[in-house]
Every structure is written in structure tokens, then in C-alpha cells.
Amino acid sequence: MYETTREFKNQIMDESERCRDSIELEDKTDAMYHGDQLPPDVKITIEERGQPEQWENNMKKVGAKIQGYMRNRNTEVKVKERKRKDKPKAVILQEIMRYIANHSEYQSEKADSELELQNKGRAIQAVFVKERKDRIDEEGNTYKDVFLKNIPSENCILDSYANEKDYSDGNYLHILNYVLKDDLYMFFDEEQVDKINTTSNWTQENRYDREHTSTTREEVLLCESWYRLYDRKKRKMVYYFCYWVDDVILLQDESPYDFEGYPYAVSYVTKNKKTGAWSGLFKDIIPIQDSINYAKLRLYNILGNVKLLLGPDAVEDVEEFREEYNEDDATVEVNDPNKIREISQNAKINSLLLVIRDGREQIKELIGA
User: 10 Å Cβ neighbour count for 156?
Assistant: First the structure.
């Protein structure tokens, strides 16, 4: 086991840098899916013009179709025994899986995981077992609830070089969450919690601070780390877990599970095995969506403006004429109307409409609609 948190910090910082492009794509996709379609500089320009934002959320339309299909499908995993003697175990496992699927929280967590997979390109689920002390069987054993919990992708640091579907070849897994320091006293040794410095800012350079703005509460970044090390005596990989905050290790021990692996399931939409980069369903749609939004902004800007050619002495005051001419019910006095010509922008308008229509068709083709 590790004696300090230095190795954990190095893993987190290295992975955050190595996967920066995937992380930024996660953030952009999630923002666009939830309606934040325009870049900050474009929003400022639009606001200065007094022009309303114009965009269309094709990603949301696609996502709604996918989510609708996922909700309506019926899936059931069947457990088959390899040997006849294993049949009783297979029956028990089948019932456990059926119970999990019928649990009230399962559908909600499943929907969250599917949305994570769709938008961010990966989903992480944890398996939890909770004792029901209010229910005891005839032999005195307490009942247990087994359920799945979706872990937000942005809270996870994974080994980018792990390629097995069950993540069995991953060397580490980190889950990071901000929590109140006082809450830690309920779960960890008081003396260790007292050592935590709430003003530490070691994570300022990694992505987990990007949305954290609380300054009034004593919050700390609690890290749950799982890792594996080769044990020469046992001649096998041994799995460990560790709860830590900054430089303080709160709890560390060997994995309590009987199996060799992590108590988490990891899924990807697409992943580059060489670089570790991942992406969701909308990677190829985002640039098309950006072009549609830009075309719509240009279109509404053109429709809200008029181009004129003015000959000499056509009007008394050009600035005054411009202001009056832009009014919806304008009545403007001019010297010579024959010296005023409005420039048609129909060609530009038609070109922009073509870009919008073509973009929509490309998106339909990409999703197979």
C-alpha cells in the first residue's frame, strides 16, 4: 500500500492532462445538449447589437429519439450455468439481477448512465450492497438491497490505457467529490480528519475546480482511489482502496471483495486504444451544429439590416436618414429618391438557408434517420 498520496495526485494530474481534449469535448457536448449553444464572445457581440440569440438544438432532438427508444426497449440478462452443479448459483444470480432491474432506483440510474454514455462518451456505474436491518430471515441473516449507482464521468479519473471491457486491466480508478469536512467525522478517524487543511488548493490546475465556486463552506475534495499492485509473495495482483484528502490518508486497506477487480463497471461509446481519448455520439455532429448556428445568426442579422446606395445630395443628413429609415413605420423626407437604391441580399439569404438545410440533412444521415 502507498504511504503518501503523492502517487494518487500524479495519476490524477497526468490523466487530466493526457485526456484534456476528451474532457473539453465532454464539457462542450454537455453544455450544447442542455441549450448552451453559443460561444461567450458570440453572446457578447449579440448582446451589444441588441439581437436575440438564435440557435437550434438538433442534438436534443436526436437525444430525445434515442432516450425514447431506450425507455421502450425490454432487455433481460440471463445467467446460464457452465456445469450442472453450478445451476443453483445461476438461479440465485438470475434472481438477484432481476431484483436489481425491478428496483425503484434502477430505472433512474440506468437513464442517467445512458445519458452520460450518449453525451460524454463513457459511463461509470458502482454496485452497492446495503443491509436491511429491519428485515431478518429465519436463520438470523439480514436482508440486503443490491443496487447500481451512476457516477458522473466528470468526477472520475480512469487509466486511459485500460482497454478491457470490464476494466480489469486498469491500474487505478479515482472518484472525486467535494464534501463538507464536518461530514467526514461520521466515517473516519477524528484525529485524521483534524489534519485536513481546508484552504489547500492542490487541484486548482485540474478540471475538478472548474465549476466549484463555494467559498463560504468548509469543503474539501474527498478522493476515493482504487488501485492494484503486484504482490510477489502471493504471486498475483492485489486490489486496494484508499480514501484521502490532499496529503491526509483517511482510510486504506485491501479490497474487501472476493473477486479480483474493481467494484465499478466502465463503458465507452468510442475509445482510441492508442491515445486513450474517448467521445460520445455527438462528436461529428458538433461542428455541423456550430455551422447551423452561425448561419442562423448571419441570417437574422441580414434580415434585421438594410443595405443602401446613396447618391450625392440624396438626403440632407445621412445619419439621421439611417435612423429614420430603420423604423418599422418610417416616413422619411429625401431630396432625390432616384439617387437611393436598396441592395438586395436575397442571394446571401438563400445561401445561408442552404447551409442550414444541408446541415440538418447531414445530421439525419449521421444518426441514420
Answer: 18
pLDDT for position 201: 60
Q: Which of 40, 103, 101 is nearest to 74 (CA)?
A: 101
Burial 124-138 (b: 16+ CB within 10 A, else e): bbbeeeeeeeeeeee
Coil, helix or strand at residue 300:
helix
Q: Which residues contact 336 (CB under 8 A, 6 or more apart)?
A: 311, 313, 314
Instruction: Give the span between the Cα atoms of 319 and 323, in whole angstroms.
Output: 6
Residues of the chain with pLDDT under 50: 203-210
pLDDT at position 166 is 78
Grid cell for residue 294: 452561425
**What is the distance between the alpha carbons of residues 162 and 164, in angstroms, rounded to a whole number?**
6
pLDDT of residue 15: 92
Distance CA 150, CA 23 (A): 18
Please give the helix or strand (H or E) that residue 225 lies within, else none.
Answer: strand 219-231
Calculate the alpha carbon distances from 98 to 106, 144, 246, 288 in Å. 11, 14, 41, 42
- pLDDT of 103 reads 65
Average pLDDT, rounded, for the chain:
83
pTM of the model: 0.78
Name all contacts of 270-273 with Cβ < 8 Å and 24+ positions apart.
270/121, 271/121, 271/122, 271/163, 273/163
C-beta separation of 100 from 92 below 8 A: no
Given the DSSP bridges, would you call strands 270-271 and 278-279 parallel, antiparallel or unpaired? Answer: antiparallel
pLDDT digits (tens, 9 = 90+) for 311-369: 887 777 777 777 777 666 666 777 777 777 777 788 888 999 999 999 999 998 887 76
Question: 54 in helix, strand or coil?
Answer: coil
> Please, are residues 269 and 279 in contact by the beta-carbon 8 Å criterion?
yes
Neighbouring residues of 68: CB distance < 8 A, sequence distance ≥ 6:
none
Distance separating alpha carbons of residues 364 and 288, to the nearest angstrom:
11
**Cell numbers 495519476: residue:** 11
Strand-pairing partners, residue 157, are 174
Report DSSP state, residue 60: H
Of 128, 44, 51, nearest in space to 302 by CA: 51
